[in-house]
Amino acid sequence: MITFAKPLVINLKNYNEISGDNSTKIVQDAKKASLSNHKDIIIAPPPSSLLALSKIKIPIISQHVDDVALGATTGFIVPEIVKSYGAVGSIINHSEHKIEHSQIKNLVKRLRELDMISIVCADDLHELKAISRFSPDFLAIEPPELIGKGVAVSKANPSIIKESVQAVKRVSSTVKVLCGAGIVDKYDVEKALELGAEGILISSGVIKSSSWYNKILELSSVLK
Predict the structure, then answer these.
(1) Is 97 a known active-site residue?
(2) Active-site position among 64, 94, 127, 198
(3) One of 142, 194, 198, 218 is an active-site residue; which one?
(4) pLDDT in tens, 100-125
(5) Domain ranges in the chain?
(6) CATH assignment, 8-221
(7) Residue 126 designated active-site
(8) Residues 25, 20: Cα–Cα separation, whole Å
(9) What count of other Cβ atoms lies within 10 Å of the Cβ of residue 22?
(10) What's the whole-number average pLDDT of the chain?
């Protein structure tokens, strides 16, 4: 399994800005930034782009996987197939694609058995505490009311990051907490790190920026 120190995880979602060849361009910009500052940058593109973008040789993960069997499961996103496309892991339980906790538990275990990383999202401290028992590789705290609003959780609700880190460490010394929701500049990243976060999960803060390369370079440069 590939390990990551303090990664910048960029969720491309289904924004129109990354449709068609633009998804290739943003991944190439991310790779260029990663080579420039030697930081861990991970991209989560739409499932249809996984195979093509993995060939650019930067860590690619799925935006979601389903807890269904390999085989006759039409329309589902299966971890084993995702791995065959070159993905190294998956986001699970994003606020825009919530699943049952029993499924989260199964998927974390399944990804680990496949030597893939799991990035599990939690809406609040209560959910984060419950999910931490499953020992994913990363837990991302993302209050849904702040997602895409341009107001970083590290500013709007800094205590939730510190409390999340403390809660997770009481359960596991290996699970790393990511800060998500509203990150827009390097100062948001610096604040999140000061509060104990060990990486960033971001989407519109990069996708909607005027220069993907410059924004990715800016945000990743302070992850140390």
Answers:
(1) no
(2) 94
(3) 142
(4) 999 999 999 999 999 999 999 998 88
(5) 8-221
(6) 3.20.20.70
(7) no
(8) 10
(9) 15
(10) 92
